[in-house]
Amino acid sequence: MTPTNPSKEPKKSSRKKRRFLSAEKKFQIYLEAQSEAKPIGELLRREGLFSTDLARIRQQVKEGALQRLSAKPGKKQVMVATEAYEAIKGELQDKERAMADLSVELAILRKKTNGGSWDR
After folding, report:
1. What is the Cα–Cα distance from 96 to 66, expressed in whole angstroms?
2. Cα angle vertex 21, ends 16, 25, to 5°?
3. What is the pLDDT of residues 83-94, one digit of tens each?
4. I need a labelling partner for 86 at 20 to 30 A (CA). Which of 1, 46, 67, 118 fits?
5. Where are the domains of the chain?
6. pTM of the entire structure?
7. pLDDT of 37-89, one tens digit each?
8. Each residue of 66-94: b (16+ CB within 10 Å) or e?
9. Are 65 and 58 in contact (CB under 8 A)?
């Protein structure tokens, strides 16, 4: 009999590792739960889920369906990153300032060439 050294044995944590399901897997589970061919309890045991997990999946499917069905037909709106939006906004402000400066210069030049009061 060999004495076991507790420091060399791997420690088992009592917490389960968090499991992430893909969107396709969640939808497959949702469809299986909707069909009445097999009991829901069997599906939950097979997938290692709780009834609250199934309720959350059902809610996500409902939200996704409502969001998709409420979308208006036509070109989809493209989301832009905040950094890109701020960069474009700053560039636009710079161009507006430059345009204002040029319009002031143009007004001054017109006064000079049209015999304004500056030549006297």
Report:
1. 41
2. 135
3. 999 999 999 999
4. 67
5. 21-72, 81-120
6. 0.49
7. 889 999 999 999 999 999 999 999 999 999 888 877 877 778 889 999 999 99
8. eeeeeeeeeeeeeeeeeeeeeeeeeeeee
9. no
